[in-house]
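Researcher: We plan to redesign the surface later, but first we want a full-length starting point. Tokens attached.
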């Protein structure tokens, strides 16, 4: 149940933000929006606003769409077409903004959520060698270490960064350890044994890094850097999967539901981070220049901007339809793999 509820929350947020990006960009550029729908299939609930837009909830809570004037050959029942507000008569840059608006909003949401996480929950400080928390059952607690201690040296070897703690302990030839820490204004020597942990092939002292929180103005900048680095990792990983340099590792609805449930069980901020990562993935993948994705539509719009002529609508629709069919096949295959992995894991 936790998996299902978490998955629905993720889908609702991601879809509403994405389609909201299309909707508000369309309204900004004076395009008539006939329908804003959450889900696919037949409508379960539907209401027409005074603006003329129909807001609908559809049977299958996967995806959604914003239906604009000029995108279809025949109007739907109840539509009141206004040719002067058609998407098709807009300039290329206006179409680009409207189509890119969905993915852009997913990426912006990922950035905002990351900034909130950095500001209100904080992130592990993997730079400074400052003890944040002691792990019960490990040597650090028995040696008298305390949260806030700054590690200065281990057996005479200077420690400058958090990663130096593990590197130095691994390189030791003896279990006997003297660790000098700064506590307040005093330097204190902690003595004891740090044996090699069974099955780890490493000496584990038993400490975790401190948590660092940023003021929000700085969290916004750091969050942008985090999102940029993560985007590079996502696209690099995707390229390596395409070229065969690494095994394909993608998740469908079932896999996302399991991950969403796991994140929710670990706490609010873990779920927020998961939501940020999902939105960043969704935004980037939607911008890939593939048929049926927003990126595929952007390719045609860019072609129109460069050539001054629009690609034949009939052939563009056929290309997107083929891309959509292939996308559905991929989703089915990935979902089947997710189900197999879930059954094996349970």
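Model: Full-length starting sequence:
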């Amino acid at each position: 149940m936790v998996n299902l509820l978490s998955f629905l929350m993720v889908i609702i947020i991601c879809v509403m933000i994405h389609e909201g990006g299309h909707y508000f960009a369309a309204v900004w550029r004076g395009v008539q929006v006939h329908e804003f729908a959450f889900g696919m299939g037949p409508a379960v609930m539907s209401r027409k606003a005074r603006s003329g837009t129909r807001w609908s909830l559809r049977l299958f809570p996967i995806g959604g769409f914003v239906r604009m004037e000029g995108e279809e050959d025949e109007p739907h029942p109840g539509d009141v077409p206004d040719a002067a507000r058609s998407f098709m008569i807009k300039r290329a840059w206006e179409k680009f903004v409207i189509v890119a608006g969905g993915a852009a909003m997913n990426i912006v949401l990922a950035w905002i959520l990351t900034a909130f996480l950095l500001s209100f929950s904080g992130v592990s400080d993997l730079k400074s060698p400052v003890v944040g928390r002691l792990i019960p059952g490990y040597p650090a607690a028995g040696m008298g270490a305390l949260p806030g201690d700054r590690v200065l040296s281990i057996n005479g070897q200077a420690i400058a960064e958090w990663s130096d703690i593990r590197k130095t302990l691994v390189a030791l030839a003896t279990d006997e350890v003297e660790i000098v820490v700064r506590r307040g204004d005093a330097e204190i020597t902690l003595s004891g044994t740090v044996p090699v942990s069974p099955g780890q092939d490493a000496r584990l002292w038993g400490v975790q890094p401190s948590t660092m929180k940023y003021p929000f103005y700085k969290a916004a900048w750091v969050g942008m850097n985090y999102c940029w680095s993560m985007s590079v990792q996502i696209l690099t990983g995707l390229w390596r999967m395409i070229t065969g340099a690494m095994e394909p590792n993608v998740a469908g609805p079932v896999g996302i539901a399991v991950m969403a449930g796991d994140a929710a069980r670990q706490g609010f901020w873990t779920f927020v981070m998961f939501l940020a990562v999902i939105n960043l993935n969704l935004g980037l993948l939607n911008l890939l220049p593939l048929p049926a994705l927003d990126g595929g539509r952007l390719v045609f719009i860019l072609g129109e901007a460069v050539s001054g002529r629009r690609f034949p609508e009939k052939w563009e629709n056929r290309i997107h339809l083929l891309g959509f069919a292939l996308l559905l096949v991929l989703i089915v295959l990935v979902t089947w793999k997710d189900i197999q992995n879930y059954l094996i894991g349970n």
